[in-house]
Amino acid sequence: MKKKALSIALILGMVMSLTACGSSGSDKGTATPGVLVMATNAEFPPYEYHEGSEIVGIDVEIAQAIAKKMGCTLQIEDIAFDSIIPEVVSGKADIGLAGMTVTPDRQQSVDFSDPYAASSQVVIVPEDSAITSLSDLSADSVVGVQTGTTGDIYCSDDDSIGTVERYNKGMEAVQALTQGKVDAVVIDREPAKVFVSENPGLKILGESYTDEDYAAAIRKGNTVLLDEVNSALQELTADGTLDNIVAKYISAN
Ligand code: GLN
Q1: What atom in ligand 1 is closest to the CA of residue 212?
Q2: CB within 8 A of 97, min separation 6: which ones?
Q3: pTM of the model
Q4: Beta strand 202-204 with 117-126: parallel, antiparallel or unpaired?
Q5: Which of 38, 43, 78, 81 for a ligand 1 pocket mutation test, highest count of atoms within 8 Å of Cβ?
Q6: Which of 90, 102, 169, 250 is placed for a possible disulfide with 43 were both Cys, Cβ 3.0 to 4.6 Å?
Q7: pLDDT in tens, 172-215
């Protein structure tokens, strides 16, 4: 009887420490104990996007799996892409997870977890476009990008591109392309595939503009959380969870 009571107490204790977002009151480096706040921009399918009133996608499921391992509840903040790093820096959000590319510039402001996905910037053009390769981008080209993204940063630095038009959402840049307001859109590969499939008459050039890695942004110096996220990512990679999440949203073709 005594033994049973003890084991129930032990189990209860384990459950309680799990729901406390880590053991013995430790908050695992999150600003609010028990809660992992993720800042994202849910305009980036298949990584984060709206499905009815819900925000779903690869990053959302990865964050849910990390939060579960940490014993935290996940809270999602859907904000402008270029507000994500400031929110992480100020501590309003614990992690920025938004198909965010690791860049040396961003590494001045935040720390990045180990990369969890490889990506690239690609060029979308109308099917009948005179632009058939990267070398066709010229001083006459008007390229649409999403504000503050690597597409924006790299195209703005690229002397061979005439004009860069910035849009709040990637989808808005693609709409401008279908309306002939821009000649091409530079954007991440997987959202590009989704947008092209939804807008007939567009294609993706075979040659990528850049290759890059996605990682989670974490406030500089929050090594407790960085270590938690990295070990969760390692476990999720090793046990196949990460691959399963990706396979749910991206068909291998
Ligand atoms: N990967 C790009 C970047 O980090 C775009 C990310 C996004 O639009 N969510 O800038």
Answers
A1: 1
A2: 38, 39, 40, 48, 59, 62, 63, 216, 217
A3: 0.89
A4: antiparallel
A5: 81
A6: 169
A7: 999 999 999 999 999 999 999 999 999 999 999 999 999 999 99
